[in-house]
Structure formats: structure tokens, C-alpha cells
Amino acid sequence: MADATYPRTIRGAQASILYDEDKLLIKHDQGIEIIEDQCIIAITNRIPLDPSRDSRERSILIVKTDETTGSGSCFEAVEATGLPASLEEWHGIDTLPPHLRQTSFQDQLNIHVVISTRSGTGLGEVFFKDVVHPCLAALGLGNAYETHRTKSERTVTKLAESIFLPRAKSGVLQTIIVLAGDGAVVDLVNVFQSGHLKDEASFVKPAIALIPMGTGNALANSAGINRDATHGLRHLLRGSPREIPTFKAIFSPGSELLVDEARKVELLANDGEGENGVIYGAVVCSWGLHASLVGDSDTTEYRKHGSDRFTMAARELLSPSDGSASHAYKGKVTLILDSENERRADALPGQQHMYILATMVSNLEQNLTISPHSRPLDGQMRLLYFGPMPEERVMSIMGRAFTGGSHIKDEAVIYRPIDGLRIDFDEDEAHWRRVCVDGKIVRVDKDGWVEVRMSEQSLLDLIVIK
Ligand SMILES: Nc1ncnc2c1ncn2[C@@H]1O[C@H](COP(=O)(O)OP(=O)(O)OP(=O)(O)O)[C@@H](O)[C@H]1O
User: Fold this and answer.
1) In what residue span(s) does the DAGKc domain sit (predicted)?
2) What predicted TM-score, i.e. pTM, was given to this entire model?
């Protein structure tokens, strides 16, 4: 570890170095340089890692803004000596974390990088080239991982079925670095949660490291991964695995998953009991305005607008351009509330609804704090609900959700912990029977239902700083 009495140098030249918690102020011959604290991934022994080097020679690993690269960012390992003790205390690491360390053959560690090529505005590939690979290479891991790129909506599921799940079952430690939004994680969750792993003695949970590249990035934003400017790399180097709590949504027979911008449908996986379909989630299950706007905005055209696509679709739903009124969603919504030895089912009053959302996370987007009481990966499902109301009123409630989460204080909003949710649909038009599970859209059959419950066990971990 560094020694603050050692000569202070940056990139080999003498410098004065001041650290005031939100930035590192460096004065050297060429002038003043500032490294924002939020750009620091970690401080390690000098890169490339070499145990024979003086351990007082350090590298500050940073993600920098760089207009010349495709992603607008680049990685740099800044050589330094004599760094302030407070900076070392905050960011210093002595060794790589276990999930990045090469192990002996018996505990074989597999590191995979999955790049979702259509996430968000499609920056995954360039961000990998500009930042993630250079960072891993600097850590001596340049040849230690396998890279997979998505070619279709099914790629992540296929990878999980053919590589990650079989290896996890045979006891191989795996770290999966995912450059994507919530979609890729949810695909992994679905393969693992339905993998019948209860009796697999040798099963080892893979650890997922998220490099948020999606539109909403709800999981990353809610787990604190996006709080700094290193796009998940700080968590990859300094975090440890924590369970991803998940839920199970069971759908009535005939329910279909909409894919390829709703041009095609797929059958849901069978839940093993009768003809019901099942899909697992880790973020959100919704019906009404939220599900409709996610479904409507999942097109190549809308995706060009980043997260604005959700607001654009919401406006069209609340104030349709054909002049018609916004839709009141018809059905029976029942809250499932478990106590020690009893399962209570409380039907919400009224048959018409607007916003019905069961969430496991605090933030659906970086600034959209839908559930301010949720803590990272706390495993508690919460309901956010309101009934039909005029557009301005909805926009005012959602506006408060975008500015800290005070919308939960609005008298029209129901916000509370729940153990599950059931919806019995009473809609003639299939369009209004769309349910969103973590961004995926399921269309329920006429007179159908969905029931959501917490999963008993979680079979994947997320690498986060606790
Ligand atoms: N090459 C590809 N061809 C077709 N579909 C793809 C391809 N790559 C990824 N996809 C699909 O694109 C979607 C991207 O989802 P992802 O969650 O990663 O990003 P997002 O939807 O922008 O973000 P978020 O879920 O955080 O809002 C997924 O449904 C994924 O299966």
C-alpha cells in the first residue's frame, strides 16, 4: 500500500496532490489537472500488475471523457506515488477481488463478457472497446475472458442455457460481465430460476457484473451501480456478490410473449403445473399505463430517443393524437399480503385503473425514483398504484417521481409493501391486456389473469459495493 511520505509524483513527474473527496487536485509543471472522484475506478499497485515492483508505486484507474472515441470515454491508468492517505483509504485495493482472480483448475473461474448490441442507444460495443477491455487488459486479464455478442433477442438465453447454467451446475465459478440494460439480466434470471436447481449439490451461483448500457438500467440504478461515473467498473473491482431477489409471474393459459417489436409472439415457458405460463423478473411487473408505454415505445424508431421514448409514449397514451380520451384499464386488482401463518388477499376498490406496478427496485431510470423506500437488493416487493385521472394530474404525479419520489405522498397514490399481486383482466381488446415484466411484454388471453409472487430462492448474484 502507498506511503504518503514517499515523493509525490504523477506520471513520473513531481506534483502536489490534494484530495478533497469530490476531486483530486494535481499541480505539476504543465499546470493543474483535476481527476473527479466519481471517475476513479480504484487505486492499485502499478499497472501492469507486477509483484516485484515497489508497492508504493500506484496506478489510479480512471474512466475519462474523451470526445475522440466512439463511446465518448476512455480508460487510463495514471501512474502515481505518494498519494494522500485518505484517497488510498477510500479507493485503494491490494489485490483483485475473488471474482476476478484466476484460480486453480478445480475451482476453475470462467470470466465472460456479454455485449448486448441493441441496448439503449447501442453503445455497448464501443464502450467495451474504449473502456472495458483496456481496463481488464491493464489488470492482466486481457486474455482471461470470453466475449459474446448478441445477435438476436434470444442470444443471452441461449448462452445461459448452453454455457452458464451447465457450468454452474457442475460447480464452475463464473463471473459474467454484462454490458446491457435490464433485459440481459432478466434473460439470465429466467434461465436460472427455471433451471430446477434445488437438488443440484454442486451448483455454484454465477456473479453478474453490470456495465449499464440500457435505456432505464433500473437494476443498476437501484443497486447504486450508476452512482459514480465509471459505468459499473468501480463495482466490478471493489464490490462483492449479493443475491438478486426475484419474483415469479404466473400467467393464465394462452398468454403470449410479444417479441420483435410485437410482430411475433412466443409461448411462455410452462410453470410445470397445468397450462399456465411463467416468467421471472427482478425489477418490475406492471399493467396499465406503465406496461403500455414500455410496450408502445419498444420500437427501433422510439429507441433512438433513449429514455425520452418512455415520456413520448406516455404522452400519446394520456392524450391520444386522435383526440380520444386516455384509457381506463378494467379488471380486478388483488394485493397478496402474507402474515406469519395466513395469506390475505385484499382486492383494491373499483374495477377501473391506470397505474398498477409491483416493483423490487427504487429507480426505474436514473432520475425516476418510483419506490423511494426500496433499498438496494432488499428483496421487498412494493406496490405503486393510482386510478384513472386527467393527463395533467398523472403528469404532476410522475413529475414528482422524477424529482426525488415525493409522489408517494399524493393522496391518490397507494404505495405499500406487498407479498404479491393478482390481476384478473376484464378487457375486450388485447391491446389493454399487456403486462410488463422487466421490460418484456406479455399479452394475456381474454378473461385471463396474472399472479406475481416472490421467488423462494435466488440463483444469481450481482456484484455490488455494499
Ligand atoms: N442483435 C440483436 N438483435 C435483436 N435484438 C437484440 C439484439 N441485441 C439485443 N437485443 C434485444 O434488445 C433488447 C435490449 O435490452 P436491454 O435491456 O439490454 O436494453 P434496453 O431495453 O435499452 O434497457 P433497459 O431494459 O435498461 O431499459 C433486449 O430485448 C435484447 O434481447
Assistant:
1) 106-254
2) 0.92
